[in-house]
Write a structure and sequence with these properties.
Blueprint (H helix, E strand, L loop, with lengths): L3 E6 L9 H14 L4 E7 L2 H4 L2 H7 L2 E6 L4 H11 L3 H5 L3 H13 L2 E7 L14 E7 L2 H10 L3 H24 L2 E4 L2 H9 L9 E3 L25 E5 L5 H19 L6 E5 L5 H4 L7 E5 L4 H7 L2 E4 L9 H8 L4 E3 L16 E2 L3 H13 L1 H18 L2 H4 L3 H5 L4
Amino acid sequence: MKGEILFLAHRIPFPPNRGDKIRSHHILRHLARMAPVHVACFADDEGDCAEERALASISHSYRLIRRSKPMALAGMQAIKGGEPVSRTAFYDAGMAAYVAQVLAHVNIGAIYVFSSQMGQYVPDDFAGRVIMDFVDVDSAKFEAYAAGRRGPMGWVFAREARMLRAEEAHLAGRADVSLLVSEKEAALFRERLPEGARVRVEALGNGIDADFFDPASVAPEARMVGVPRLIFTGQMDYPPNIAAVERAARRILPLVRAHCPAASLHIVGRNPSDAVLALNTVPGVRVWGRVEDVRGWLKGADMALCPLEIARGVQNKVLEAMAMELPVVLSAAAATGIEATPGVHFAVGDEDAALAAMIVDLARDGAAAARMGRAARAFVVEKQSWQGVLAPLADLVGDGG
């Protein structure tokens, strides 16, 4: 590695308790073993700010800024400037000043940009390597949002999709290499670039800390009742997760309970929206919100249910459940980027009736459920360790081999 590394992230990579922060956390730790790292990132709330000591412990220098710009202001700035809202929402003059200071006084050999929102801080005249980690194709996600909405919000989502697609192409052209979380996501990204674009696009997957997510390391959460006990974990103010649990509670669970009357669905995750909290009134559903350690809840479940209809990239919630030896019943979208075998490592279906039937079959055949759980853990231990997944970073960030 020639020189030091500047790491730009739209959220502080601590604690690693949601999908994007899990990925950025492990990438930052991996980079810090290669060279001194200078980190510029935002905090969403006081909980994020409380992680400043952890950030300082791994950074040669850092700048953590509490993001407080109202979304309405970001929207007005975006329309006036002809930019994506997500770009203006993450612009801060203090962040730009820190980046300029580091580049002026430190021998930075590479800038690792985590998420497209932070690409705006890379100066055009930077001569070192630029690695753009898009993670997912955000513009495609906003296109999916727009397709399901009418009126003003449909226009907002469609505009953001168009603007982000142009921004993604611009940033990919500026970067030495662009990274996506799976080969399928990388192929989609390539397809959406302007014809003739000469850019390098690679897949860099997500991993799992299988030593931490080990069913032998925790006791099951005793408050989970109802058999079979289904679980969904995730950030519960995130629209695709909200849609998934509404589908699970209102459409899939009733079909399961027609055969297994005691079946229950446990929704575990931070910041449940009003729509999610309302699911507490559905028979068999319990919304738990934020918990201290999700592992006990996974250990206390009989299987995980992940019926996502809009999903970009690899779902950490699926890898975590698999590592905990849970049979996972999921949609094809939720299985994206996980090179496991349906019917062996997890059960994949798309129609409500098919997903419910898989749950009922696994509930009735405990031996088959146990075999799937063991196969799932064996798969993630062998194929999805963070150390193995991130091994290509040395070449990508170093001399570009």
